[in-house]
Amino acid sequence: MFLIKCRDYDALMTRFGRIVSMRTASAFHTQAAQKSQQGYDLAKRTIMADVTATDKSKPYFPLAGSASDSWSTKDEATATCFCGAVQLAFPTQGPGLINTFLCHCHDCRKITASMFASNFTIADTHLKHLRGRENLKVFSQSHTIASGNTMANHFCGTCGTLMYRVSSGFPRENILRIGTVDDFHLHETRLRPGREQFTKGRVEWLKMVDGVKQFEEGAFE
Known about the structure:
By secondary structure, this protein is of the alpha+beta class. The protein contains three helices and 14 strands.
């Protein structure tokens, strides 16, 4: 499509040889943009409805990350990094699943690049590295940890996803991130937070989670 000059107005010559006025062309592009936006809005509503309306007793794996081999059973499920290089398997009930909690401490805010961390703790004897253990990078420090313990952070060396943390105060426990769990329905069911700690650091525009025990300081000291 290219611009040509007519006596009374500028016009556009289409690749099919049809001459249309600039006004008509503008209207056409406006309609196309509106249809595109409508399609996007419909897709967005469909995705949101899919998440909220599906049966939460069944596994749900939305398009999230590069892995395509995630699974979830009655007693166990996978947690995978964003690129799919690292994959863990963990129990979805006790005794391997120790607790679930939200943390608003300054350390968690910084390391997650968010306002809080959503965590669950798995006993070391129950955590399985299905693949990519050699791809994990470890960064340890104690300077920003409220308890003074050293926290070892295990990241995927390819995409940077924080898979779990291990505190020197609880060396046989692994603190995983709920967001790495592939079955999204587990986020709302078995992994729903049971505690919320360091609430004194919670930003004002976030509300407490209903029915969850609140702790101004650490909940596990």
